Amino acid sequence: MAILADSFLADLDDLSDSEANVPHEDEGHESDMDEDSDGDIADIESLNYEDLDSVSKLQKSQRYIDIMQKVEAALQKGSETEEQGFSSEDNPEYQLIVDCNALSVDIENEIVIIHNFIRDKYRLKFPELESLVHHPIDYARVVKKIGNEVDLTLVDLEGLVPSAVIMVVSVTASTTVGKPLPEDSLNKTIEACDRALALDIAKKEVLDFVESRMGYIAPNLSAIVGSAVAAKLMGTAGGLTALAKMPACNVQLLGAKRKTLAGFSTATSQYRVGYLEHTEIFQTTPPALKMRACRVLAAKSTLAARVDSIRGDPTGKTGRNLREEIRKKIEKWQEPPPAKQPKPLPVPDSEPKKKRGGRRLRKMKERYAVTDMRKLANRMQFGIPEESSLGDGLGEGYGMLGQAGNGKLRVSVGQSKLAAKVAKKSKIKSYGSVSGTTSGLTSSLAFTPVQGIELSNPQAHANQLGSGTQSTYFSEVGTFSKIKRI
Question: PANTHER family given for it (predicted)?
Answer without folding.
Answer: PRE-MRNA SPLICING FACTOR PRP31, U4_U6 SMALL NUCLEAR RIBONUCLEOPROTEIN PRP31
